[in-house]
Amino acid sequence: MDDHWYLPCCEDLPLEQEVRPKVKFFSSQPKPRFIAPLLLLFLASSFVTISSTTTATSVTSNVEIDAQAKKKTEAEKKAEKKAEKKAEKAKAKAKKARQERRARLNPQISPPPNWPPKGFKESNGIYAKIPTKKELAGLVSARTALFEAIKPCTDVACGSVIVASEDQCLWWEVLSTVTGPKISDSSTITSYGSLTTKVKGSDARQQKVILLISEEPIAAKVRVSNINVTCHRSGEKGKSGNLYLAFPDRG
Question: What pTM, to 2 d.p., does this model score?
Answer without folding.
Answer: 0.55
